[in-house]
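Priority: medium. Attachment 1 of 2:
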């Protein structure tokens, strides 16, 4: 997202935008393959749905700072589950 935001509106790389959209779509699948508890997986799925919605609403030709801020807030919330999954893996 940062890469896309740093590009001039006229030169937003559509391939990079599509790739980020695909990565966002993979989040629930990656979480399902992890050691997350079911409750945590549900949270990850909800967060990824919200991230996807915010990403789809983002107009790179006229960026809304509130929307971008929401995107990064959701990403930060999602990061906490990465730590939980890794911790559980190493405790086994």
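Attachment 2 of 2:
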């Amino acid at each position: 997202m940062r890469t896309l935001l740093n590009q001039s509106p006229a030169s937003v790389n559509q391939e990079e935008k599509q790739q980020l959209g695909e990565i966002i779509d993979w989040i629930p699948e990656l979480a399902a393959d992890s050691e997350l508890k079911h409750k945590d997986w549900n949270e990850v799925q909800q967060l990824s749905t919200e991230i996807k919605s915010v990403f789809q609403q983002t107009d790179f030709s006229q960026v809304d700072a509130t929307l971008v801020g929401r995107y990064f807030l959701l990403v930060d919330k999602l990061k906490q589950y990465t730590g939980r999954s890794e911790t559980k893996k190493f405790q086994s």
